[in-house]
């Protein structure tokens, strides 16, 4: 009997240890996103006979496959903007799994930028926004505003600092191709290319490349079109600045306007909400819509519109 009791005790200890190892493995699987088979989600704000409960931001974040979206150049900026908005005010509304997915996707974004050396400033700003928010939240951890152990969040903050350092250490490599460059093009084409830049900081950076580009980057018409693209006439009239020559200084006005008003956002591809069946998905994703013409029922959502869907 004593021998049997000892074997039973050892067996129980083994089962408990095995379950603990399995649980630890699942919890530490930090590089695996939580996927669902469907790539769409039904957004509902109340209970019905057919559906019960509420759709949350975290649930939508888990279901819409943002890991694949960041590999698409048309969706990359959209996802980054969404990550930034969540970092500013919505982190505490995410579930534990959604918070883990958030950090996994952010890591993939950083790795992509490190590999292709594009959108560096954009990701730096995202990481700084997230780090600032976490500093505030960690100080209030006694109020249970974050899911999980405080040490886990401290480790994530250390990861953010490491990613920031990696981005700061990037050395842009010049391509080996020695053919036609931007400055070899006619001036009208150079200006045409510059007019397609939607961020004034990119214009300033481009002007630092070469003296000829510096002259073009100061073109008044260039900055005027940039102001008119992002801001309304009423906003512009409220922030008029005159140069020493008595002309409107559009460059100074632009940087003053961006401090006062949000800039216009434009994305190659966005999430869409079907007004008929209330299903949220990426453009081109098939979903079980009962409308006669599903294409006419879809509404494009900005990142802020996406966040607003889950504010009850």
Automatic annotation (TrEMBL):
Gene Ontology biological process terms, A to Z: protein ubiquitination
Domain of life: Eukaryota
InterPro entries the UniProt entry points to: F-box-like_dom_sf, FBX25/32
Broad class of where this protein is predominantly found: cytoplasm
Keyword Nucleus in record: yes
Transmembrane keyword on record: no
Coiled-coil annotated spans: none
Localization of this protein: Cytoplasm; Nucleus
Keywords, alphabetical: Cytoplasm, Nucleus, Ubl conjugation pathway
Record note on quaternary structure: Part of the SCF (SKP1-CUL1-F-box) E3 ubiquitin-protein ligase complex SCF(FBXO32) formed of CUL1, SKP1, RBX1 and FBXO32.
Protein's recorded name: F-box only protein 32
């Amino acid at each position: 009997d004593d021998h049997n009791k000892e074997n039973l005790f050892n067996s129980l200890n083994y089962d408990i240890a095995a379950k603990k190892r399995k649980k630890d493995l699942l919890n530490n699987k930090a590089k695996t996103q939580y996927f669902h088979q469907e790539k769409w989600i039904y957004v509902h704000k109340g209970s019905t006979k057919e559906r019960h409960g509420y759709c949350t931001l975290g649930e939508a974040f888990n279901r819409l496959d943002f890991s694949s979206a960041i590999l698409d150049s048309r969706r990359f900026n959209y996802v980054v903007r969404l990550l930034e908005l969540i970092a500013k005010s919505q982190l505490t509304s995410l579930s534990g799994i959604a918070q883990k997915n958030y950090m996994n996707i952010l890591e993939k974004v950083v790795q992509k930028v490190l590999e292709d050396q594009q959108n560096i400033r954009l990701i730096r700003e995202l990481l700084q926004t997230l780090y600032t928010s976490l500093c505030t939240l960690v100080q209030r951890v006694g109020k249970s505003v974050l899911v999980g152990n405080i040490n886990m969040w401290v480790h994530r903050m250390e990861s953010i600092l490491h990613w920031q350092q990696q981005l700061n250490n990037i050395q842009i490599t010049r391509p080996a191709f020695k053919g036609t460059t931007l400055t070899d093009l006619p001036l009208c084409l150079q200006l045409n290319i510059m007019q397609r830049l939607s961020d004034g900081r990119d214009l300033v950076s481009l002007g630092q490349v070469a003296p000829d580009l510096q002259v073009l980057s100061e073109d008044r018409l260039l900055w005027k079109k940039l102001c008119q693209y992002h801001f309304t006439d009423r906003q512009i009239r409220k922030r008029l600045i005159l140069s020493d020559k008595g002309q409107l200084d559009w460059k100074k006005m632009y940087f003053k306007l961006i401090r006062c008003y949000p800039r216009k956002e434009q994305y190659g591809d966005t999430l869409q909400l079907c007004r008929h069946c209330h299903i949220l998905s990426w453009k081109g994703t098939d979903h079980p819509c009962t409308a006669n013409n599903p294409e006419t029922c879809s509404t494009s959502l900005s990142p802020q519109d996406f966040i607003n869907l889950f504010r009850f």
